[in-house]
Amino acid sequence: MNLPCKSCLLLAAALLGGSHKVAAQATESLLQGTVISREGSAGAARAFDGDASTWYEAGSPDFRWVGLDLGKPHVITRISYTPRQYGSTGADRMLLSLFEGANRPDFMDAVPLYLISETPALDTATSVDISVTRGFRYVRYVGAAGSYCNVAELAFYGHEGAGSDTRFYQVTALPTVSIHVADEAVPEQKGEDFDSRITITYEGGTLIQEYPVLTRVRGNYSATHENKPYRIKFDDGKSHHMLHGSARDESPAKAKKWTLISNYGDKTLMRNPVAYEVSRRAGMPFTPWCRCVDVILNGDYRGCYQLTDYIGIDKNRVNITEMDGTCTDPVGITGGYLIEMNGYAGQDPVNFTSRHGNPVSVNDPDEKDIQPVQLAYIRDYFNAMEDSVYAPSYASPGSGYRRMLDLDTFLRYFLACEFNGNTDMLWQVFMYKQRADSLIYTGPVWDNDLALDNDYNVYPGNQRQEWTYKVRTAGNWGSLVSRVIADPAALARLQGIWAQLRRDSLFTAQAMGEYVDSLRALVSGSQRLNFLRWPYLTQQLHCNPRVWGTWDAEVDVVRDYVQGRVAWMDRKLNYGSLQQRDGVCQIASPLDLCTFSQMVAQGHADASAELLCDLDMTGYSTLFAPIGTGQAPYTGSFSGGGYTISGLSIQGGEAPAALFAHVAGPCRITDLFLGARSRVSGTHYVGALVGIVHQGTLTLARCGSQAAVEASGHHAAALVARVCQGATASVTDCYNVGSVRADSLASAMVAWSEGNLLMSRCYNAGTLRGEAPVCEFAVVEGQFQVSDCYDTFAYQVKHVRKADVQSGALCHLLAACGNDSPWRQNINNVRARDAYPVPVPSHGWVYQDGDSYTNINPNAPKYRYYKYEVTAVQGGNLVQFSEFDLLDSNLDELPSLSIYAGTGSAIGGENWPNLADGSMATKYCSAFSGKASFFFDAGQEVEPYGYRIGTANDTQKNPGRNPLCWTLSGSNTRTSQADDDSWTLIDEQTGDSPLPATNQTACDYTLLHAVSALAMATPRVSLSPGGSVQLAVQVTPRSMGGIPLSWSSSDPEVATVDAAGRVTAHALGQCVVTVSAPDYTSHTARCAVTVEREPEGYRYFLLAIDGVREGSTVQMAEVDLLDAAGSEHTPLTLYASEAEHYSDEVPGNVTDDNLDTKWCGPLGQSAFLCLDAGTPLRPSGYRFYTARDAAAYPRRNPSSWRLYGSRSQSASPDGEGWVLLDRRVGDSSIGAVGQAPFDFVIDYSNVADGIGHVAGGAAREAGKSPRGVYDLWGRRWNTPDEAREAGRIVIQDGAKRVK
Question: Which helix (H) or strand (E) holds 495?
Fold first, then answer.
């Protein structure tokens, strides 16, 4: 409609009483008021002059507006607008312009009334109805970006009144977030908070949230984009739910900080919501709450964003204890910490680089609260966690990395990010540690704009074979992830998690596709406006793999990706299938074993398989079915690889029950062990390993069982339940130490053989029970050939005692039965002792030494020539290491060792001579095809006590090149033939102690020798009640330093000692702590322990700096406490501070024993440094070292300070335990000399009871004058005259006196 001319409007106003104001009434009227604008120009009135041929145009293109001050609140019911008559440009300039209403003249409380979402018609007015029910005094039109607020005519209609908050305006179906910044500022740079107000309208405009907030630009790379991401923080002192009151969309967290994520590189505008949905389905403990919203900033439509949780501590976010600067006690300091492995960590205020090269930001406690001792704690703990991952025995359940890194959250994070294909998954990794919890947890997922096929480095992701995490990583985090995933237990757990998610139908192609399409429908309206505001749909941005041209085509990429990713993950994690190598199924998890059983049952009875690791089948009893059926018995080859299956539970019922229920020749089962917690039960024909051999030949070699076998009917045995007539079972080097029970016919090894049974070098040390005979080694009705077999239960074969099994006597017998005998037993070889012999080459050889058995060769020969032969690497097809050395009894390198031959390398400068050049900066590196041999000359016949292998200079990036398995052999014949008969095996490593994934690391492998002496490093110790000390033992030779030790106390009431040698004092008195190694030597060592009263003194000290010579900057290099002899006490650490500092000149530098560093910072009223002496101390004085540049800046030297002591730790200067020990005011004795010591004596005569008196808080002592006389060196004198003997100027009662 056309607006009336201005004269008509004046006439209408006169008829209404001569006023330009509209009377309060419910009927709609054209509203009048004072014209207002951003620029305050007179030309703004043209927008209300009723003449469409005139127009308003601002002087700047962006954030310009024009409007009316209506004098009183009015409810706006209709708005009319006419574009400038400037061709199509005039109408185009109005597109995305916004109408707002407010009741503050600065429009900080503005509420959106209407967004022009379609290009208006030219040469005519467009009228729109307004549904907002609140009344506003101020109304305005905000021109779209770049439009110069160009408009011909505006008109507002409505009626006077405050209205109600019944309904508000939403731009689209998404919630509308409108932010107004004070003074209409536009945040552009990170790090600055802007006073703002936020208005959120949602639920179809029926709900609204309005609060003061602080707005700042956030992000790293994303902060450089045009549409900035923001962090908003409620500024009313309260926390709030987002979208409060929405049954569907209200945020779980009630918090102050929130995030607005822009979508610059993500043209679907929904990759983050999809990624978070994947995280929720993957079972992450916390997934950020996220809703797509339309964002308006100062009236400018900014596009479609995601309103999400801020990653912080909250019961509905990262649910850990929130710390502050006072949390420094032994429990409080342990958590909670929120950290971030972050490629941009160097830009954050609190950060460190880990020992393994990973940049880490500490987000909570933040820079305002965190104390040096807290930063040191989380840094050291993170380093220890990394060390445990890179340690040789990292996969150990009890001592490996899983005691410090929570595997479940780590794997769920990994799984979610890999499903999303997020190439930034290792560029920004959040982690956290809870108080009094030993684990570091991973998550939540974050930063997903490059996920879901939006990175040309990996597109199309579902056609790649490799994991996504290897594409991009901050620091060396990728190698840590590789290390964890290489742990068989981690891989098994990852497969189990995915399998459970698939069984629960949380991840199906249909479900994931439907979720993407549901977001498509929700975001459709907003995306159209977004790409009007940011027209880059046809541009290639950031890492976009392609330009798809339309928004729907962009969304199709995501939908197709998530649908195909389900099958990709299935293949990668062996869900329903198995990986194969040279046609052999690779079994690396309990789920793999279940899948293999299904494959055999489905017709692949001849499939070959290889076990890659120990398996714990606990919880898989419903998924696992015994391998082989009566109709399709297993006929393949199954190699156990020397690994153990534990926790297996099989209940067979009437059918035969066993791990392999039905087999037929040619079936071969080797190197497989059933471990403890395994139980196999059924009615008839029950075996731990094999049920029934139907026909052909079964070969069972180097297998054993600890399982409990039970048949409620007849025929049960540990190895084989039945060998049918015509079939053959060849059983070699096998054992049973489990229990076998049946109502009848319970047998140790084979329950019933009607065919041919051949057994050699086998033994039974288990228990048998059965009401009827036979309870023998094997029940045989057919042919039976047996040799070198032993039994502790029956006498069908050679009988041995239980003691012979444990002592090594049985192993020695079995090992003597042929040169190919695999029998070994760890007795005293610095490894966990074996209770029985095992056919595992990596365990210890058993020698007879008189009446005892040992792993230590009593007649160890000497050799001149040595062969180090690598037989496997940790992964890949390359082998590398830097050095090889032989070690003497003190574990020093033999200097005369040289290398004379080796497997050649085609890589220039990286051949075998580097292995004996004495430099870990060089290395040997070559292609590896199964074996690499190296030959060394010791110069003469020597008896090595160990050998040392050095990792290469790039091992952390290439850990797979490390040797994994190898042998060391000796000879007195010089030869470079690896298979020469003169070589004698000295040591063999089969992967139990792999080299670490760290650069240039020397790793020692010791050889067994007799222990000749034990000695205490500290033969006497004194403790106070409650105190403790760790004792150290010196073992001769040093190569045997890792032997297990036994500790005892002669009087546990005085002091006890634990299994690790830590002594804890309980009561006054004396006792003797004894250490022994009964499996290795008859020698013992003793330590005399005296428990006496705690010595006088203080462990904790507080230094309060109250003033400097001149100015307001303080600096010093070091602070030390002096013991009774005047020597510097060590250790002394800073555990807390209330002191400002410049850059890296932090307070912690005063205790780093480095005079080249310093603490330097602004000094307000006082600065406080909290020090820990480690043990109670009665210092005779203390020492300040000046900074290196003190000669140039002597005014920065302290001139007034106080020193306090306390027996209890406190990070607060107001703590009641602080005792004033010394005080100086106006002291000018610290000279203008760089890196110079200045000593100050503590006069205990001024301290009550000779030790101290309670000062009632160091912060309240300021202003008091010190007593006594001091010279300029800080020394106290009895009289001024005595002091003047040392110098012309003295300090008396806090004042300077001149002689």
Answer: helix 488-503
Burial class (CB in 10 A: 0-12, 13-18, 19+), 392: middle
Is the omega angle on the peptide bond into residue 666 within 30 degrees of 0, that is, cis? yes
Decide if 569 contacts 419 (C-beta within 8 A).
Answer: yes
Distance CA 313, CA 322 (A): 7
SS3 1138: strand
- What span, in angstroms and rounded, lies between the C-alpha atoms of 785 and 800? 20
Convert the pLDDT of each residue in 917-934 to its tens digit: 999 999 999 999 999 999
* Cβ-contact 515, 277 below 8 angstroms: yes
Query: What's the farthest any 2 CA atoms get from each other in the chain?
Result: 129
- The answer to whether the beta carbons of residues 686 and 697 sit under 8 Å apart is no
**Nearest to residue 789, comparing CAs of 758, 820, 763?**
763
Residue from 605, 747, 725, 717 nearest 663 by CA: 605
Reduced to 3 states (helix: H, G, I; strand: E, B; else coil), residue 1269 is strand
Q: How far apart are the first and last CA of the chain?
A: 100
In sequence order, the 6+-apart residues with CB closer than 8 A to the CB of 20 are 13, 32, 33
Q: Give CA–CA dist 414/132, Å, rounded.
A: 47
963 CA to centre of own chain:
27
742-774 burial: b if 16+ Cβ within 10 Å, else e: bbbbbbbbbbbbbbbbbbbbbbbbbbbebeeeb
Phi and psi angles of residue 1267, each rounded to the nearest 5 degrees, phi first: -105, 155
Other beta carbons within 10 Å of 1192 = 11
Could you read off the pLDDT of 595-643 as tens digits, one per residue?
Answer: 999 999 999 999 999 998 889 999 888 889 999 999 999 999 999 999 9
Neighbours of 436 (CB within 10 A): 11
The CA distance from 730 to 750, in Å, is 11
- Single-letter residue type at 808: G
Name the nearest CA neighbour of 41 among 20, 56, 24. 56
Q: Convert the pLDDT of each residue in 958-990 to its tens digit.
A: 888 999 999 999 999 999 999 999 999 999 888
Burial letters for 672-696: b for 16+ Cβ neighbours within 10 Å, e otherwise? bbbbeebbbbbbbbbbbbbbbbbbb
674-718 pLDDT tens trace:
998 999 999 999 999 999 999 999 999 999 999 999 999 889 999
CA 1275 from chain center: how many Å? 52
Half-sphere exposure of 721 (CA within 13 A, CB side): 34
Q: How far apart are CA 776 and CA 736, in angstroms?
A: 13
Contact yes or no for 714/684 (Cβ under 8 A): yes
Task: Answer yes or no: is pLDDT of 782 > 80.
Answer: yes
Q: How far apart are alpha carbons 566 and 501 in whole angstroms?
A: 11
pLDDT tens per residue across span 206-238: 999 999 999 999 877 777 778 899 999 999 999
Phi, psi angles (nearest 5°) of residue 993: -130, 70
Which has the closest alpha carbon to 2: 158, 141, 119, 155? 155
How are beta strands 756-760 and 783-787 bridged, if at all?
A: parallel
Alpha-carbon distance values, 742 to 363, 715, 717 (Å): 63, 7, 9
- CB-CB contact of 642 with 612 (8 Å): no
The CA-CA-CA angle for residues 938, 940, 945, to 5°, reads 60
